[in-house]
Amino acid sequence: MSLSLRSIGPVMLVGAGKMGIALARGWLEAGLPSTNLLLVDPSPGPAAQDLAEDYGLTLNSEAKGLQPNVLVLAVKPQIIDPVLETLAPVIGPHTLALSIAAGIDIARLSRGLGMGRVVRTMPNTPAQIGKGITGAVAGPDVSEEDRSAAAALLEAAGPVVWFDNEAQLDVVTAISGSGPAYVFHLVEALAAAGKKMGLPDTVADLLARQTLIGSAALLEADPASPAVLRQNVTSPNGTTAAGLAVLMEGLTLLMEQTTEAARRRSEELGRS
After folding, report:
1. Tens digit of pLDDT for each residue in 193-237?
2. Going edge to edge, which strands form the sheet with 118-122?
3. Contacting residues for 11 by C-beta, under 8 A, at least 6 apart
4. At residue 1, does pLDDT exceed 80?
5. Which superfamily does 179-271 belong to?
6. What is the value of pTM for the model shown?
7. Which 3 state secondary structure label does DSSP give 26?
């Protein structure tokens, strides 16, 4: 069972980029007191400034002097090592570290921070509206209370799937971490097809966008499998069957290649 967000104490978010801001908004909407959120980013963008203004937060250029109970690392994996070096001095005896840096394993995070209370995670951007999903792995020194605190933060963004095998988090990155971009590109491609066949741009965009929105809502509301929902739309020898005959011939292989490329890149980031 996860703890209440109100009982966790100061949460320091390092890296106020798109994913960090998405998570922060989710925490605040789910009940984390604004006084318990510490934002650290040396070059905050407009989204971070808007968040700070909306909730009366202070944007800190560095972590020095701050004392978090939970340290959330939301920085690019390419800069993780120097960031860890600057954060090690703020780690206290009760600090839990939670990382969303793609590909960076628990051993590397622990070495950089000088402690083993680390939870490695991979959320996705729908977290900003509470519709995300997160994969998580707990380090060897993470207690049940630590895990509950991590769960409270992560579940504010949507369901959490815990893994024992850390290597599976690279697969999570490829499927759900990067997955929203694949879905958005599907909408782009569907709209482009409509435009090519003569629809006005605004109409094609609306049809493609709302088709995805409606289909996702139906998938959430109906317990039937995606295969059954697909079959429900597909009349024998009808228009959908004609379209699927083309799409299904290559989409499965293409998706396998897409996610494999993303998984390999996640592994590469961990080694770089």
Report:
1. 999 999 999 999 999 999 999 999 999 999 999 999 999 999 999
2. 59-60, 37-40, 11-14, 70-73, 96-99, 118-122, 134-138, 160-162
3. 27, 32, 36, 37, 38, 68, 69, 70, 72, 153
4. no
5. ProC C-terminal domain-like (1.10.3730.10)
6. 0.87
7. helix
